[in-house]
């Protein structure tokens, strides 16, 4: 497999500290927007493109989001996937919030 030029350099340079705080559960975290914002100047520097897409899968009646992040230089590409379950039994959240949360979680990984 050919890896895009500069992709390894971008990955090595990418730093996204956990600067957000969940005061209820008392932990630090980063969200997908933090990661993509940190990527933007590095993508430009290394002349690369990042594309993130979601697909839904039904596994025995359970829905999962599969997020695929692809870095490309226009000729070669490197892809990584992450998964998260759409748990419709979560109380206090609409289906839009549940699907957005699962998508964000899968995209981070």
Q: Show unreliable segments.
A: none
Number of strands: 5
Sheet bearing the most strands, described? 3 strands, antiparallel
Q: Structural class per helix/strand content?
A: alpha+beta
CA-based shape: flat
What is the CA–CA distance across the termini?
A: 21 Å
How many H/I helical runs? 3
Radius of gyration: 16 Å
Helix and strand arrangement:
Blueprint lengths: L6 H7 L6 E3 L4 E3 L2 H14 L3 E11 L2 E11 L4 E10 L8 H14 L1
Antiparallel strand pairs: 1-2, 3-4, 4-5
Can you offer a commentary on this structure?
- With 109 residues, this protein is of the alpha+beta class.
- 32% of the residues lie in helices and 35% in strands.
- It is built from three helices and five strands; from the N terminus they run αββαβββα.
- It has helices at 7-13, 32-45, 95-108; strands at 20-22, 27-29, 49-59, 62-72, 77-86.
- The strands form two sheets. A three-stranded antiparallel sheet has the order 3-4-5, with helices on one face. Strands 1-2 form a two-stranded antiparallel ribbon.
- The model has no long low-confidence stretch (mean pLDDT 92).
Task: Supply database-style keywords.
109 residues; alpha+beta; 3-stranded antiparallel sheet; 3 helices
């Amino acid at each position: 497999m050919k890896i895009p030029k500069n992709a390894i350099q971008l990955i090595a340079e990418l730093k996204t500290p956990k600067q957000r705080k969940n005061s209820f559960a008392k932990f630090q975290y980063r969200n997908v927007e933090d990661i993509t914002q940190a990527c933007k100047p590095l993508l430009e520097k290394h002349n690369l493109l990042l594309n993130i897409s979601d697909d839904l899968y039904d596994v025995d009646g359970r829905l999962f989001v599969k997020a695929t992040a692809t870095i490309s230089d226009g000729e070669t590409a490197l892809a990584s996937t992450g998964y998260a379950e759409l748990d419709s039994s979560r109380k206090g959240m609409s289906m839009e919030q549940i699907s957005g949360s699962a998508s964000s979680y899968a995209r981070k990984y």
